[in-house]
């Protein structure tokens, strides 16, 4: 799989309505559901079922469930080395678990889904850049 294939797959989700814990292109997804959908499209069946999780980005108590799952199934890279097709994880506030993710396009934007909207492509402005806590590559990604 190539970086451009990952970005194209992610962009194929744009406009999918936000639905917490969903992962069905065109019908509903959340940020993790978008990444799961791209995985299914390009890698194959999901390696594990996603556990139930809270939609609360500011949840102060809790495990690093998203970060730990990413470390089990993706290849961690330095956040500053992330490029097109890489998965970015975000910590929305200090002291809370990483609770948001998306796919970098390599063009200064991020494809992600968030509450009250849909899957969208957003500029990676400093507000987002400051919140990146980790970056990962899909297995089998060719440079």
Automatic annotation (TrEMBL):
Entry protein name: Phage cell wall peptidase, NlpC/P60 family protein
GO biological process, one term: proteolysis
Residue ranges occupied by any NlpC/P60 domain in the UniProt entry: 1-139
Molecular-function annotations in GO: cysteine-type peptidase activity
Protein family: Belongs to the peptidase C40 family.
NCBIfam families named in the record: phage_NlpC_fam (TIGR02219)
Pfam family name, one: NLPC_P60
Keywords, ordered alphabetically: Hydrolase, Protease, Thiol protease
InterPro entries referenced in this protein's UniProt entry, alphabetically: NLP_P60_dom, Papain-like_cys_pep_sf, Phage_pept_NlpC/P60
Organism name: Hyphomonas adhaerens MHS-3
């Amino acid at each position: 799989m190539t970086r451009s294939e990952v970005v194209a797959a992610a962009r194929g989700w744009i406009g999918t309505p936000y639905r917490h814990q969903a992962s069905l292109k065109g019908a509903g997804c959340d940020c993790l559901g978008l990444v799961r959908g791209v995985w299914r499209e390009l890698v194959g069946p999901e390696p594990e079922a996603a556990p139930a999780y809270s939609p609360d980005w500011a949840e102060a108590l809790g495990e690093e469930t998203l970060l730990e799952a990413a470390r089990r199934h993706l290849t961690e890279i330095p956040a500053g080395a992330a490029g097109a097709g890489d998965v970015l994880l975000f910590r929305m506030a200090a002291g809370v678990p990483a609770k948001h993710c998306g796919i970098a396009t390599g063009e200064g934007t991020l494809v992600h889904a968030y509450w009250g909207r849909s899957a969208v492509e957003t500029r990676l402005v400093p507000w987002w850049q400051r919140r990146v806590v980790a970056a990962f590559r899909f297995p089998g990604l060719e440079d």
